Amino acid sequence: MRLSPATTLRRAPTVELATNRVLRNTYQLLSMTLLFSAMTAGVSMALNLPHPGVILTLGGYFGLLFLTAKFRQRNLGIAFVFALTGFMGYTLGPILNAYLAMANGGQVVMMAMAGTAAIFLGLSTYVRATQKNFSFMGGFLLAGIVVAFLAGLGAIFFEMPALSLAVSSVFVLLMAGLILYETSNIIHGGETNYIMATVTLFVAILNLFTSLLHLLGFMSGDD
Q1: Are the C-beta atoms of residues 91 and 49 closer than 8 Å to each other?
Q2: pLDDT (tens digit, 9 = 90+) per residue, 88-147?
Q3: How many domains does the chain have?
């Protein structure tokens, strides 16, 4: 059935309002989860808790991610978002303690935080200002993240520092691309669930931060 021009004009503001609502809810939930994650990281650091290890970290992450996706249309999904981001904050605590124990660790951590904030805000602002559609990046990003993830696991298990640095460099680019893609996806109506949008952006920010931390730590001569 064809829509008349008048009908299209009436629907346009409705679609725009829905998109703005998803974007607003996403940023609000993202802000709260980042704060909650920072709190759990702080508790983990204060108690000097050990890192759970790669296997438990991946199990907890993918398990909570699955539950978040399963209940994304219900209020329970929000609880799982906080469980997921809180868990990732806990795993980040021991990593930060390790960097802060270095001679210039505080400077490295602050530079990584500043770099992450600048990249996220800059890319988000760019997408919202230009309204460019980056949906074409979806397939490339998925393939790149899978390859980089597997390479990262190989670097850990086979103790290959050079490969680990290369993976961190690639992840910086991939996470920047993911921020562009997901923000564009929300703006253009491709993502209508703010819970999943929040998780995607949170994961991008966390991976961007840890990758910058690794690279800056290496360049400082302490990694």
Answers
A1: no
A2: 999 999 999 999 999 899 999 999 999 999 999 999 999 999 999 999 999 999 999 999
A3: 2
Q: Of 46, 69, 101, which one is at a domain's C-terminal end?
A: 101
Provide the Cα torsion 10, 132, 145, 50; round to 10°: -80
Range of the domain at 128: 104-223
Q: Are 89 and 44 in contact (CB under 8 A)?
A: yes
20 within some domain: no
DSSP 3-state percent helix, strand, coil across the chain (nearest 5): 85, 0, 15
**30 CB burial (10 A radius; 0-12, 13-18, 19+):** buried
The type of residue at 146 is: V
Residues 197 and 149 in one domain: yes
